[in-house]
Write a sequence for this structure.
């Protein structure tokens, strides 16, 4: 049997550069890796079921959209494969309607929000005037599930905008949220995309209007006025139970740090050197080192559980 340290599941064509880089760094770190994608999926599944191939750890970036991968995940769990993001934690983690009250209870600031049931369960859109007064105009409308901005309505102004959004995705709960305006921090819009990777917090500047990243210098990371970014990410990680995700956080003029996008579990890892709105290469490198370090540490724990 071939026992592989890290199985890397992927299906999105734009994941290729990230996946190949991760694969290369695994080899440099003395780890074996195995890429699984739609082209070799059937062959891989047969090997796994025959017992010719086993994965100690898995980075899964495919099962959310590929039925074959989704069916393979529970089988691998039975074989004690350890997933970077535990599948049993994902359902709650990516549901904004579930995470929203958890963040509030943990003391994390979030936008004022009106929670609406799925259109299929409750077709009448009920927006209380007092609640709408607190949300103000313009406001944001977003589905509880999903990511990447899909289904999100920015700059909504009227009741009909909410009705239309709910009807277009009638099986999901919706959040109607106040629009957060960040302060300027040293001349930059204080909006951040922050990665949490196996215990490491990697903050980036991220402009919510242009969707462009900016790497954060070491000096900026050590800026005490930005320290809450790390504290918030560790809290979110403890609430969602995932090892690799990103969040959007904005700093407001009253010094509040507000979590905007709570848990994005499959981060867009297109390289900044190849895509204008991609992740800076130095950030991708840090993410990859964190992932390979996690695999090594988990292997040590398995070999020496008492240490």
């Amino acid at each position: 049997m071939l026992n592989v340290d890290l199985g890397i599941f992927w299906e999105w064509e734009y994941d290729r550069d990230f996946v190949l880089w991760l694969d290369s760094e695994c080899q440099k770190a003395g780890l074996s890796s195995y890429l699984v994608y739609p082209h070799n999926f059937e062959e891989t599944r047969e090997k796994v079921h025959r017992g010719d191939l086993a994965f100690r750890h898995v980075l899964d970036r495919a099962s959310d959209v590929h039925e074959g991968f989704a069916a393979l995940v529970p089988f691998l769990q039975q074989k004690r494969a350890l997933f970077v993001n535990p599948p049993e934690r994902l359902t709650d983690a990516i549901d904004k309607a579930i995470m929203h009250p958890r963040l509030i209870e943990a003391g994390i600031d979030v936008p004022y929000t009106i929670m609406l049931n799925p259109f299929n369960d409750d077709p009448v859109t009920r927006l209380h005037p007092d609640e709408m007064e607190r949300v103000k105009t313009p406001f944001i409308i977003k589905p509880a599930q999903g990511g990447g901005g899909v289904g999100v309505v920015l700059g909504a102004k009227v009741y009909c905008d909410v009705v239309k959004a709910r009807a277009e995705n009638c099986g999901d709960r919706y959040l109607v949220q106040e629009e957060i305006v960040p302060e300027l921090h040293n001349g930059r819009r204080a909006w951040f995309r922050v990665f949490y990777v196996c215990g490491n917090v990697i903050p980036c500047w991220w402009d919510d209007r242009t969707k462009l990243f900016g790497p954060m210098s070491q000096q900026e990371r050590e800026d005490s006025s930005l320290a809450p970014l790390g504290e918030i990410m560790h809290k979110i990680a403890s609430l969602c139970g995932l090892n690799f995700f990103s969040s959007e956080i904005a700093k407001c003029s009253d010094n509040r740090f507000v979590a905007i996008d709570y848990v994005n579990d499959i981060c867009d890892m297109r390289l900044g050197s190849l895509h204008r709105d991609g992740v800076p290469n130095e950030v991708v490198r840090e993410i990859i080192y964190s992932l390979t370090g996690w695999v090594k540490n988990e292997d040590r724990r398995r070999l020496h559980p008492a240490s």
Summary: The radius of gyration is 21 Å. The domain at 182-267 is CATH 3.30.470.20 (D-amino Acid Aminotransferase; Chain A, domain 1). The first helix runs from residue 16 to 28.
